[in-house]
Amino acid sequence: MSHIGSAEVAELIAAVARRVGEGRERLNRLDAKLGDGDHGTSISAAFALAVEQIAVLDQPEPAEIWLATAKALMNGMGGASGALFGTLFLKGVAPARGKGALTKLDVEAMWRAGLDGVKARGKAGVGDKTMVDALQPAVDAFAASDDFSGAWPAAAEAARAGAEASAAMIARQGRAKFLGERSIGHQDAGATTIALMFEAVQMWWETRE
Ligand code: ADP
Ligand code: MG
Q1: DSSP symbol at 172
Q2: Of all atoms in ligand 1, which is nearest to the CA of residue 190?
C-alpha cells in the first residue's frame, strides 16, 4: 500500500487508543516514579475521546482526523503534557490539508512538523528524558525508510529503544527534573507512550498488508 486514506488514518488512531489504554496502569506506575502518577489515566482517556470525536465526523479528510485527535489530546488531558501531545498532532494537520490520501512522504512531513512543534513548545531535546527521546528517533527512522512497510517497523523499533534509553538519563524537563539524579533508573512515561503509539501503528499495519 503506497497511500493511506481517511479510513486507514482513523484505524491508526483507534489502534493507538487501544494500545495506550492497555498500557494505562504501566504508564501510571512509570509516572508515579518520576511525576504525579496520572499519565496513563490522562493519555488513555484523551485517546478514547479522540476515537469518539473521529466517529462523529462526516466524511473527514485525514487532516480533519488529525485535528480532532489534537483537540481531544489538548482538551482531554489538560496541563503541559496535553498541550505537548496535542501539538504533536496539531502541527501535522497543515502538511495533510487538502489531501484525500497520504503518501509515506506526507506522513513523514506530518510527524516531522509535530516533532518540531513539541520541541519548540517544550524546549526539550534528546537526552532530557521526555517523550522527545522516543519521538525524535522514531521520526528519523520513519524518514530514513523508503515506504510505509519499512518505515512503520523502523519507527516502532527506534521509539522503543529511545524510551528504554530514557531510563539512564537525568531529567531536565517536566516534573521529573526536580528529582535530578534521583530520576536515573526509571523510564520516562511520555517516551513510553510514544513507543506504545508507534508499536500500535506497526501492529495495525501488519494486519493490513
Ligand atoms: P504532567 O507532568 O502534567 O502530570 P503527564 O504525566 O501526562 O503530565 O506527562 C508527563 C510526560 O510529559 C513526561 O513523562 C514527559 O515525557 C512529558 N514532558 C514533560 N515535560 C516535557 C517537555 N518540556 N517536553 C517534552 N515532553 C515533556
Ligand atoms: Mg503526570
Answers
A1: -
A2: 16
